[in-house]
Amino acid sequence: MSLIMLPLELLDAVCENLPLGTLARLSYTSSSVYLAVQRQLYRHVDISPARRNLGIVLTMARKPEIARHVRSFSIDLDSYSTLLRPFYQQLACALSSMSELTSLHLFVDPSASWVLDEMISCSRLVHFACLFSLDSHVSSFLERTPALLELEVDSMPFRHEGPTSVLTTSAIPQLQQFIGSSQAAEAIIPSRPLTSVQLTAGDLTEDVVTRLSESTASISTLSATTSSAPAALLQTLSLRMQCLVYVRLKTTYNFPEAPDVNFYEHIAGFLYALPALQTFELSGIHWGSQERKDSTTQRVWQSQPLKSELDSDPDVLLDIDPYSDLFFGY
């Protein structure tokens, strides 16, 4: 049977398993095959100056029927890329036709959030990542993404401080994972079912913890930088976020003196108050923990520097690989 006589579903299945070079050559064989190849060639688009494929943006802006084939779109312009407003206008035009997107990465000029304005149909989008702050353009866009599960916004560690827009309570109702600044987190996380939070900018204060605890689901994974005293912050976490499983903190707190045994004991006590906690890291130090035979969930945490008194306890099972980074972390 001739290839062009295959049903569209089978032709698409054949094209899915061909390398890009073969697809490009196959597209010249007939008009019907060309359409099937086009659907595959533009299904996943990854653009960057290193790939020398910025021209794809212009192609999709001129031919919206091609842009409608895109399911995942990523554009990453490094800090050395200087593109003028006409290019971003073409990018906005191309994005406006991507009605079937499920994943969108826009690592471009942080001031170009207006390229989202014409994206009217975003009902299938489940992953969105950008360098934009949570301004009016981004918040308006998020109002049109009801299926979104993963969000990265306002994630630059050093950024210009600006006002954060407010989302309506009905926006992004299914959001589960967030990466971004503490300011954006305070606006986004309350009243939404977040389970994973990574703060890449801003300060994790006790007030921010309180806002994060207003997630309608239990947050299990938390990564952030804090200027607060670690013991005080952990105490707040143990009161507000009892279901934490993985916690990674970087502290900029100015300790008046080197941490001593009392410091370790305070940290261990607050870690023990988090019953589901399995892994804790503080400024690159993996905190050691051990498991008791008579407990299925609670762990006993390192309460002294360098070694633990728990080693001699026969009721304790050591759960650290002596050849792992965890063992040598402290």
Automatic annotation (TrEMBL):
Taxonomy of the source species: Eukaryota, Fungi, Dikarya, Basidiomycota, Agaricomycotina
Q: Domain F-box spans what residues?
A: 1-45
Protein name (database record): F-box domain-containing protein
What is the organism field in this record?
Gymnopus androsaceus JB14
**InterPro entries to which the protein is assigned, alphabetical:** F-box_dom
Highest taxon above the source species: Eukaryota
